[in-house]
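hi!! sorry for the late reply, been swamped w classes. u asked for the two structures so here they r. pasted raw, havent cleaned anything up. first the sequence of the first protein and right below it the tokens
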Amino acid sequence: MQSVVETASEAARRGGSVLRDKFGRVDVQEKAPSDLVTDADFASQAAIEELLTSRFPSYAFLGEESTEADRESALASGRPLWVVDPLDGTANFVHRLLSFSVSIALVEDGVPTLGVVYDPMLDVLYVGDSDGRVTKNNKPIRNSGCKDLSKAMTCCSFRPGVTRQDTEVGQFLCVLERSQSMRRLGSAALNLCYLAEGCLDSYWATSVKAWDVAAGFRIASNAGVQFTSLDRSEFDVWNPRFVASSTPELQSSMLECLDPS
């Protein structure tokens, strides 16, 4: 397993190097209204994919910028699957906000067994492996242990184009009123890493994709973070509508706020 960890870490750093080189000078397009993609996304993914597939040719590869046909083929292969977001936090990157990351997960039988998230501007690498270890730059980390929503630093991710009539806004207001602080930071992968190291206490998302959170799920889970789908079922990496909190007590309070009924 160590060679897998080392390769994923090297690939994340390679993708991060591309992002640093292109920071502040990118070509930007819209995949959909307010949903941005840049040449840096594609260049980072190409660098990551080349390394991962050359080292582990028997594994499949699914990236955010892969074609739909390639994604479907990778999912149908039944092989261990690299799930990659080459630039999580593209809007931040475009606006030169220093909160974006590279996210690489290895998913086996539908479960992320390895997660690597790299913050290229701070040179910080988070790793969660299949043996339950979780580190930040090779040092162990743990969640905050916060139990009380009134003392919690919370965070959320909204879909592009959210409107005031949407359910997410009511959920946001409930958590805003009851928590100590609320943040919307722009990188789901980093949000989960911050949860793992205790900088955040709870985080929820309603419209992220597997490549946004697969690696962060492994990292945060290894740090003792609780995950629940918003319908109170088990977390599903392929349908990640979820809340994650440092403790069961805080998770229960968050689920009360986020209940749409």
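now the second protein. again sequence first, tokens right under
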Amino acid sequence: MIYAIGDVHGCAYELRNLLNKLPLTPESTVVFLGDYIDRGGQSKDVVDTILELRKQCEVVCLMGNHESMFLNFLDNPGTERAGLFIINGGSATLASYADENGNYEFPDEHIKFYRELKLFYEDEHHFFVHAGVPEIPLDTIDETTHGKKMLWIRGSFLTSTYDWGKVIVHGHTPVPEVEIRRNRINVDTG
């Protein structure tokens, strides 16, 4: 059985409650659609929870736009692009990694986690991605050319009736309840 979880945004307590409700077995696959961090105050705990879950079943972790901003911050903290991380809830992430003296401590295992995130994952019937994809055949998607859209796209993707040959499973755009369309499923329920 495969499960998709999107946009946890630093809510470790809620994530653990959700995982406890799933009938996970060693044969289960859990695909996280990105945005593990920011906004909620438990970003570090979210990553710890996901790393622990890897001992129980197969876990696939995709990059979200918030992880992309966080990596920009880590690599070049003085740039405008890094500032976007702070503006978009990054201060909550930094606080979750701060010690009692206010110094940031990023465990090597967490840095490795962020740097190894994938842009997409697919199985026979589904294509999993953080935000969406352009209207092109899936086998022509190039991470360098289309990576930004896979992390940020909204409007044109959300209104598209394009048939990608697989159902696109995504998050990124909050909806009141899971949105199931013929060509896509949005699991970001805010």
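hope this helps!! also noticed smth abt the second:
Residues 80-96 form the longest helix (17 residues).
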